[in-house]
Design brief:
Length: about 950
């Protein structure tokens, strides 16, 4: 029957096609010449009233085929533009008529408020901003984010040319690495303003706390101007949040998902209903002697379950009221997901034999189960008093809670393949993070040629890790049974413990920017000046309790769960932050001022400016937590830096620019780094303890860029550029540096240190092209960095030699690439996107030994998304992430000292030592979205 219907259709349509004409053309903006995508075009037969419809594709083109010869009314409609109407005549069946149209902006003046068509959040708007900026910028639009497989800002970052990501222990993308520069060299802004970080160790902001759904666009500035804060040697990530639209807007979605690993193994969880948010010392006072009965056991009892599906939901509403003077944009988001990770990692050292081959000291095999909850609330209010005065208030509250179980087995001997001693450890971690920010902004035109923009910002970031528990045992692994036997409560290196840690960072900032038009000297030229004052306060609290050691209690006979173990007492009943220096208060005051000029010359646009920033950092350690009596409990340091910047933008044509930029930047150490903190290697997360470094100096960077930009049409673009950076006093984490051959290297602790100057050179290419319904987006970055540090060589007589080794910067990948294949069916509402992401080899951990750094193996990730619109505002979509199940792997480019020993996971022991592998599994999500305007 279906075949018969098709034959009838072909039989009737064929004669019509022989006597039908075609109409095609391009639709553009009359002022900018930009291609208009999605414009509705109709042909109405003037005699029969028969209507033909189509829409412009991603290249701004449209085409009608098989149109009978007749007289037609040709009409184009597109929001924000005046309707375009024209009478056309198709005189014969062979005619091919071309009608190009340039639409005029639909402008209405209402009580001095001008309303234009709203293109914010579109790819076309993003390309226009890139094109107009004087510095080197990449922008990801809200529409591009919506179509991508990404759910957090951290996921979106990896799609930008020159950017890669650093993942957390659960495999979630978390921090941006810009042009091979470690996360410490980049800053994060919300609506152009810096915010504090909830991280307990770092000042950089974890990007996975922000849902991507709230973004109007994501801006990555790879070069700075004097009116931007200077602490971004690598670059700046600015999250521009949605503002009130010109027309009513509502968007909501619900989606469910699952991770493939959760089908293959149980998910570890625990009862946290009785979780103690405060330690016994805080509840009962400093002199209280805690007993095991003071600590709940429910949150230390492992439960193996099959998790529910992930659920994600969001809703956003925007509108304007009071004759369009008052704008409101509100939104909320909730995400609950179950993230499993399976991994192993070794603790390698080197042998004294020639070439210093590897010795694997310990192996940890671990299954991690992390339930992650993200909640976010977003509000933007703005009021236009008139065209000269505007006030706005942004309020954002972002929450990231993670409840994690790490169930692992530590092994120290690799001689036997049968029964061998193991040390099981289970750690239960509760991490509660949130960021709250309020930004009151005023924009005022004081005179015809003089304006002011100011921000008063209050932000607070909190991190709370209550009752972090470690349950340590010892036993025998029976390979015939594939399980641990003779398991007893015992510790070797890992105590049974409970710990509380929290920190709060609070920022108060005031920014003022003034702009004076220099139209009398040169049209489009201006003078900018202004300043910033910021006060940052941080407090850090730490307290832990150890259980007393016990012997002779076996699993299966004396206990089965943690709550059945008989602990007689606590080894430190008063609790202790002693000898950690982790109870401290710290402050940072920054005062800055700048002058920036922008000159519009006949042949170029020139920006030149200078910025000065004065920094005062101080800390004070609680005496009771001091590691020694002679420790300097407080310290203050101040420094003044001057940061020049220069930009040259030469328009080669209406669609092409050549940009050259130079700027000087800074990377300040974080509080955790300059306070001489001591964090022990605990819970099986690290083989090394960490130390702070009160002598740490800020890094200074000099950066230069040269980029050619070509925007042939619409959202198409071709960008190619080179960059160079010189970093003075770069900071990296590593083992304490040795300076003499007789100095024995310390290999059980790491700390942040200043190293000798480093350089970073690279080439970037970014290409986007659409062919009506199909599109391709690709970028590639080659980066080569160099830093020289001293390294240790162990001689055959077991003496040490010191040599210099030149290597790449920590975290820098030589090759980074993205490829997106796109299909956009504007007529059938179907969107497809297949995304490839490649991150090349990079150093993940710096070793003190020569040529023994830990390298990350190159990673290729494949993601896919598809969505179908049903014409009523309803969209169904499906997204798949990490389709190839690409592992995160670390290796050392050295052979094993005894390659014949039965080390697990070593597939090429004569050449390479594999030290880590994390498997994250594929993730799949399906959902529906409803929106109307």
């Amino acid at each position: 029957m279906k075949l018969f219907s098709i034959l009838i259709f072909l039989n009737t349509a064929w004669p019509l096609a022989l006597n039908a004409a075609s109409v095609q053309g391009t639709v553009t903006d009359s002022e900018s010449g930009e291609l208009l995508i999605g414009a509705l075009i109709t042909l109405t037969n003037n005699e029969t009233d028969e209507v033909y419809r189509t829409v412009t594709g991603l290249n701004g083109n449209y085409r009608f085929t098989n149109v009978p010869a007749a007289s037609y009314t040709f009409e184009i409609r597109f929001i924000g533009y005046e309707n375009y109407t024209q009478q056309i005549n198709l005189q014969d069946s062979t005619q091919e008529l071309r009608v190009d149209a340039a639409l005029e902006t639909d402008e209405q003046t209402l009580d001095e408020i001008v309303v234009f068509g709203d293109r914010r959040g579109t790819d076309a708007h993003a390309r226009a901003l890139e094109r107009r900026s004087v510095n080197v910028t990449n922008i990801v639009s809200a529409r591009q984010i919506q179509l991508s497989p990404d759910i957090t800002v951290a996921n979106v970052i990896q799609r930008v040319s020159g950017l890669s990501i650093e993942r957390n222990s659960s495999g979630e993308a978390q921090y941006a690495i810009v042009r091979g520069m470690d996360k410490r060299y980049n800053n994060t802004l919300v609506n152009g303003i810096k915010i504090p970080s909830p991280d307990n160790e770092n000042r950089f902001v974890p990007l996975d706390i922000f849902p991507a759904v709230f973004l109007e666009r994501l801006e990555v500035s790879k070069s700075l101007t004097a009116n931007m804060e200077a602490d971004a040697i690598g670059g700046t990530v600015n999250m521009v949040m949605r503002t009130a639209p010109y027309d009513r807007f509502f968007d909501a979605d619900v989606q469910i998902g699952y991770n493939q690993i959760n089908f293959d193994r149980p998910f570890g969880t625990y009862d946290r209903s009785n979780l103690n948010r405060r330690s016994p010392k805080e509840v009962h006072g400093e002199n209280y002697r805690a007993t095991p009965a003071d600590f709940p056991v429910e949150n230390m009892t492992l439960q193996q379950k099959t998790p529910l599906p992930d659920i994600l939901a969001s809703a956003t509403y925007g509108n304007r009221f009071l004759r369009n003077r008052f704008g409101v944009m509100v939104g909320g988001s909730f995400q609950n997901s179950y993230k499993p990770v399976t991994n192993y990692f070794y603790d390698p050292s080197v042998n004294f034999r020639e070439g210093n081959p590897l010795v694997m000291n310990e192996l940890i095999e671990r299954e991690t189960s992390a339930q992650t909850q993200r909640m976010a609330f977003h509000t933007k209010l703005d009021y236009d008093f008139n065209r000269y005065q505007n006030l706005s208030l942004y309020a954002g509250h972002y929450i990231l809670n993670e409840f994690r179980v790490r169930d692992q087995i530590r092994r120290e001997s690799f001689v036997s393949t049968q029964n061998y001693a193991v040390y099981p450890i289970t750690r239960f971690t509760n991490t509660l993070q949130d960021i709250t920010t309020f930004d009151l902004n005023g924009q005022h035109s004081l005179f015809d040629n003089f304006s002011m923009n100011w921000h008063a910002v209050y932000s607070i970031a909190r991190n709370d890790r209550p009752d972090d528990g470690v349950f340590s045992r010892a036993g025998q692994f029976d390979t015939s049974l594939n399980q641990v036997t003779n398991e007893i409560v015992y510790f070797q290196g890992e105590r049974n413990s409970r710990a509380w840690e929290r920190n709060t960072d609070r920022d108060i900032s005031l920014l003022m920017d003034f702009t004076y038009s220099l139209e009398s000297l040169s049209r489009g030229s201006e003078l900018q000046f202004g300043g910033l004052a910021r006060n940052k306060i941080r407090d850090n609290y730490f307290n832990y309790y150890n259980y007393s050691q016990i012997f002779g209690q076996f699993r299966g006979s004396d206990w089965n769960e943690f709550g059945e173990v008989t602990f007689a007492s606590m080894a430190n009943p008063f609790g202790s932050g002693d000898r950690s220096n982790l109870i401290y208060d710290a402050t940072e005051d920054i005062y800055s001022g700048y002058i920036n000029t922008l000159w519009q010359l006949s042949f170029a646009q020139v920006q030149a400016g200078v910025r000065a920033e004065h920094t005062t950092q101080s800390y004070e350690i609680n005496p009771q937590s001091a590691s020694s009596g002679d420790l300097e409990l407080s310290r203050t340091q101040s420094y003044l830096n001057v940061f020049p910047s220069f930009s040259l933008k030469v328009p080669l044509s209406d669609r092409a620019n050549l940009k050259a930029n130079y700027y000087k930047g800074i990377s300040r150490p974080g509080f955790y780094e300059i306070v001489p903190t001591i964090r022990g290697a605990g819970g099986g997360d690290s083989f090394y303890s960490e130390r702070g470094n009160a002598d740490l100096r800020p890094s200074i960077g000099h950066s230069a860029d040269l980029r050619y930009e070509f925007f042939p049409r619409g959202v198409d673009q071709f960008l190619i550029g080179v960059f160079f950076k010189r970093i003075i006093d770069p900071i990296e984490y590593g083992f304490p540096q040795v300076t003499t051959a007789d100095q024995r290297p310390v290999t059980n602790r790491i700390l942040p240190q200043n190293f000798d100057d480093a350089t970073n050179f690279g080439v970037e290419v970014d290409y986007t092209r659409y062919f009506n319904r199909f599109g391709v987006r690709m970028n590639y970055t080659f980066t080569q960095s160099e830093i020289t540090t001293n390294k240790v060589v162990i001689n055959p007589d077991r003496s040490n030699s010191i040599v210099n080794q030149t290597r790449p910067l920590q975290g820098q990948s030589d090759h980074i690439g993205n490829l997106s294949l796109l299909y956009k069916g504007l007529q059938n509402g179907l969107d497809l996107q297949l995304v490839f992401n490649y991150t090349g080899e990079r150093i993940a951990f710096v070793s003190p030994f020569y040529e023994a750094d830990h390298y990350m193996r190159p990673m290729t990730q494949l993601d896919f998304s598809v969505e179908k619109e049903f014409g009523t505002g309803l969209v169904a979509f499906f997204k798949a992430n990490n389709i190839l199940d690409t592992p995160y792997q670390l290796y050392v480019k050295k052979p094993l000292a005894v390659p014949d020993d039965p080390y697990p996971y070593q597939t090429d022991p004569a050449n390479v030592g594999f030290v880590r592998r994390d498997l994250f599994g594929q993730s799949f999500r399906a959902g529906i979205r409803y929106s109307f305007e």
